[in-house]
Structures are given as C-alpha cells and as structure tokens.
Design brief:
alpha/beta; Rossmann fold; 6-stranded parallel β-sheet; 5-stranded mixed β-sheet; 13 strands; about 15% strand; nucleotide-binding
C-alpha cells in the first residue's frame, strides 16, 4: 500500500485540510470497526506509540494506539492552526508538523514566496523529510492552498517548487481554490496569476476550484433540503453540510460547508488508494492517463449526487442519472460547462456497489453527446472502489481534462490587466527583495501561452473529423 503526504498552506488550505482529516477519520471509523491499524489507514495516518511521551516509534500492526496525520501545516498567521490544535483534531498533529509565523503575508504573493519562502526554506525541507522518512512507499504529495491571498499563493507555490527539487519522482497534486470576481482581496488577480506560472511549471495535476461554484452548490443543497424534494431530514453527524458531530460540538463556521465539498473531493480522489475495489485506480494513473501535454494538467472536477454531500436521508438517485449529472454544469467545482467544450481525457471514479458493466453502459450512452479530441476518442479512465461514502450506496467523481477551464483563465487575465495597465499596487510587491517587474510580465506571458494552447485545441474541434488513413494492402 502506498502513502501520501498532505501539505496545507495558508488560511484556506488549513481550513480545508482540517475538514479533510475530520472526514477521513470518520470514514475509516465507519469501515474499521475493530480499531485495527490497517493498510487503508496507513495511506494517510501513522500509528504512533505515545505511551513513553513525545513522538514515539511507529507501530505497523495491531490495535490503533495514536494516529498522526501524514501532514505539514504551514501558515504565516497563527489563528487557524491554533484553532485546529485546540479543536477535536488536536491529537492528530504535533508541533513537529507545524510551521507558523505571526505577521501574515498581507495578501502579497511576493511576501509569501520571496520573503517567507527563503526564510523558512530549511525548516520546511527538514519537516518534509521527516514526514517522508515515515513512509514505506511514498506516492504523492497533496498541496491544498488558495490562489487569492499571500501565504497560500506565494508560500504554497514556493513549497511546490521545493517538492520538485527535493522529491522529483513523487507526484505533486495541487488543489487550488480560485477567488471569485467579487473577492474582497483587491490584489488577488496579481497573486493568482503569479501563482499560476508556478503551477504551470511545477505541478503534475491541478484541481482548480472556484469559490463561486462552491457557494452555488451549498445553496443548491440547502434548497433541496428545504424544498422537501429530498426529504427534510439531514442525518445526524452530517459529514459535509456542517461540522456538528465532531468530538466537540462547535459552531459551524461560514466556510465549513464549502470547505467540506473540497475535502469530500479529496476523500473521493484517494478512495482507491485507501480501499479495495474491483478496478482500483492509482493516483499516478490519473496523471499518466489524463495529462497528454505537460502544461495542460488542469482537471475539472464534479461530484455527484449532490445530496451525498448533504447527507440527506433519501433513497439513492438512479445510477444512470448520477452519470448524467456528472457532466452537467451544475455539478462542476468551477464555473464551466464541459459538455460544450473539448475533452482531452476523462476519468470516472465510482464508489460503492457499481459494476464494470454499469460503467461501460453509461460511457457508451454519454459518448455521442461529448466532444473528444480527434486523437483520443477513447480517452476514458475508470476506477471502481467498493467502499461507498459513509451512509450512501454509491457516488461518482468525474475528472475532466477539458478546454472549459479556459474562460476561468481568461477572466483572471482580464482582472490582472485592469490593475497592471495602471501599475496599481505594484509598489507593494516590488519593494520585496528578489521581486522585479519582470516577474509580472513573465507570469502574464505564461498565462497567455496557456490560454493560447487551449485556443488551438478548440480551433481544431470545429474541423471535420477524418479517420486516419489506413495501410493499403495489395491483393
């Protein structure tokens, strides 16, 4: 069994990470009734003997003693990390997994990347190596961060570069939360575009997520519950719509419901690595099969059914409807419509009691309505995990390498240019050592090149589809 290490950076990254660890523990508790430390748990947790005090030796078999997350928590403000350490998850982390400061990055990518990055480089590398030493077969790093702030975007992408330098053979999956157009951080377009250049160059896969889409999904869930269509009872200890049911009852924070959707995405993505299935999909297979060109590694994700997220007591949605929903714009985690754009490849990760024949039937049913690039008409990757989400019979995560991400990038570029044409707020960045105006021009050039690559693919979509010529055989 392989292991993964989660690096959560900045306020958003740590809040999402907190929800991920909470949901992961609940999921394993539902499956692992005997409290035995098994391979499934080992993928994200160490079992540590803490009886002698401190960070004792790892225990590889037998009863669970003390679970420690394979994680590194980084934030240049102490608030969120301190909350985690005082909350129900406090025993899952120890001080050797934390890197904090007190002053924050002030919504400035340059402060996070150039200032704190170099200041904390050795400390970050040392703690990463410690986490890696506890893994038998490290497969993947997950970075969770936001693009709009200073620490998440700046220090988050600095850590991404470090991972490539120090562990070049280990896959780097990045979950990036993009700001909405009405974001309250005025400099978020600068931070996002500067971070995008680093993601283009150093990530293996990026799962872009937009705050606006998360907000819409949360509203849909509440509407479904309140309308009575799905029944009005939400299960006790609801996994995703609230944080109630944790070890301590805490007031639900404003972003908990949105963060839980991202956490649920990561739970689903890693389910095959943690549990058995008739058609398991390794994390490295996602990158291998879904990323045909190095820079085009942005995967649009959709989760279905939505009420799996809400933990509403209702009969299961029809299986075929679940597959249809995965390709509708209402279920995407960015503001996009993949059905009317071009697919380079698509992965379907199904959890629960679903057969391979169900998968094949639905792919054949949906194929005529989806536009796949001419050289990859059979660009499907499928995975079946036999363990469903807690309290549900089945669910589906679709990951699409699709040109529908382009409008998100174009809007980001437009918002960047509005500020950059006026040179507004540039002085806040340029007074940081190592930060020059060329950083901005290179970043916008990198984003423009990425958009152009998607444009070229879209231009080919409209052309006539021709079958490749066949070898003529003389008779």
């Amino acid at each position: 069994m392989t292991q993964s290490v989660v690096v959560q950076v900045g306020q958003c990254g740590n809040q999402v990470g907190c929800r991920f660890w909470d949901l992961a523990l609940r999921e394993h508790a539902a499956v692992n009734k005997k409290g035995i430390y098994d391979e499934a748990l080992s993928s994200f947790f160490r079992n540590v003997d803490t009886r002698s005090g401190g960070d004792g030796p790892d225990i590889y078999k037998g009863k669970i003693c003390s679970l420690k997350a394979r994680a590194l928590l980084i934030d240049m403000e102490e608030g969120v990390v301190n909350e985690i350490l005082q909350g129900p998850l406090r025993d899952v982390f120890d001080s050797k997994q934390l890197i904090t400061d007190v002053s924050g990055s002030g919504n400035n990518w340059a402060v996070g990347h150039k200032l704190y990055g170099y200041q904390y480089r050795e400390n970050i590398v040392e703690k990463l190596r410690k986490a890696v030493e506890h893994c038998d077969c490290l497969q993947c790093f997950f970075i969770i961060h936001s693009m709009g702030g200073g620490t998440g975007s700046g220090l988050g992408t600095f850590v991404l570069n470090l991972l490539e330098d120090e562990f070049p053979e280990v896959y780097r999956f990045v979950t990036s939360v993009y700001p909405s157009g009405e974001d309250d951080v005025i400099t978020s377009p600068y931070n996002s575009v500067l971070a995008m250049k680093e993601l283009n160059e150093h990530a293996d896969c990026v799962l872009p997520i937009e705050n606006e889409s998360l907000f819409d999904i949360v509203n849909k869930i509440h509407q479904m519950i309140n309308s009575g269509k799905l029944g009005s009872t939400v299960k006790q200890n609801s996994m995703v719509t609230s944080s109630a049911g944790s070890a301590k009852t805490v007031q639900e924070k404003p972003f908990d419901a949105m963060n839980n959707i991202v956490a649920n995405l990561l739970l689903h993505l890693t389910s095959s690595a943690r549990f058995e299935g008739s058609l398991n999909m390794d994390l490295n297979e996602i990158s291998m099969n879904l990323v045909p060109f190095p820079r085009l590694h942005y995967l649009v994700s959709s989760l279905t059914p939505l009420y799996t997220l809400a933990d509403v007591n209702v009969p299961s949605r029809r299986l075929d409807q679940m597959f249809s929903d995965a390709f509708s714009r209402d279920h995407q985690l960015i503001q996009a419509d993949p059905k009317h754009s071009l697919y380079l490849a698509c992965a379907l990760l199904v959890r629960g009691n679903v057969q391979v024949s169900d998968l094949r039937r639905n792919i054949e049913r949906l194929k005529p309505s989806l536009h796949f690039v001419s050289w990859n008409q059979e660009g499907w990757k499928t995975g079946l995990c036999s363990v469903p989400p807690v309290g549900h019979s089945h669910s589906l995560l679709a990951l699409a390498n699709n040109t529908c991400v382009k409008p998100t990038f174009i809007e980001l570029k437009d918002r960047f240019m509005k500020l950059y044409k006026k040179k507004a707020h540039l002085h806040h960045y340029l007074h940081i050592d190592g930060m020059e105006q060329s950083c901005f021009s290179e970043a916008i050039s990198s984003l423009s090149d990425l958009i152009e690559e998607y444009n070229e693919l879209d231009a080919a979509k409209g052309g006539p589809r021709t079958d490749p010529s066949r070898l003529k055989i003389a008779v």
